[in-house]
């Protein structure tokens, strides 16, 4: 455990940020799973709307530093490719 006041504060801040990042990543994974389910069931329109939503969430997470910018782009690219192959 930290003894210095600023170090104690950093620990609190890190815990908050970790919780926020975990929530963001979990939300993204949920939407990706829904996208995959829509694609497998053949619901193309729902998959298209979910892709737009996932893309927005991924780029937002990248802007906030939760995930790397290139990782977000890679995931969006792969999802878009899967959608285009299904169509």
Automatic annotation (TrEMBL):
Pfam families noted in UniProt: Ribosomal_S20p
GO terms for MF: small ribosomal subunit rRNA binding; structural constituent of ribosome
NCBIfam families cross-referenced by the UniProt entry: S20
Purpose: Binds directly to 16S ribosomal RNA.
Family, per entry: Belongs to the bacterial ribosomal protein bS20 family.
InterPro entries: Ribosomal_bS20, Ribosomal_bS20_sf
Protein name: Small ribosomal subunit protein bS20
GO cellular component: cytosol; small ribosomal subunit
Keyword vocabulary terms for this entry: Ribonucleoprotein, Ribosomal protein, RNA-binding, rRNA-binding
One of the protein's GO biological processes: translation
The keyword RNA-binding belongs to this UniProt entry's keyword annotation: yes
Underlying gene: rpsT
């Amino acid at each position: 455990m930290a003894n210095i006041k600023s170090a104690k504060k950093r620990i609190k801040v890190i815990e908050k940020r970790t919780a926020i990042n975990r929530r963001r990543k979990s939300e993204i994974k949920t939407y990706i799973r829904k996208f995959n389910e829509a694609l497998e069931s053949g619901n193309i329109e729902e998959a298209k709307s979910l892709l737009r939503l996932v893309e927005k969430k991924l780029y937002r997470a990248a802007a906030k530093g939760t995930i790397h910018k290139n990782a977000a782009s890679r995931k969006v690219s792969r999802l878009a490719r899967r959608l285009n192959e299904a169509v």
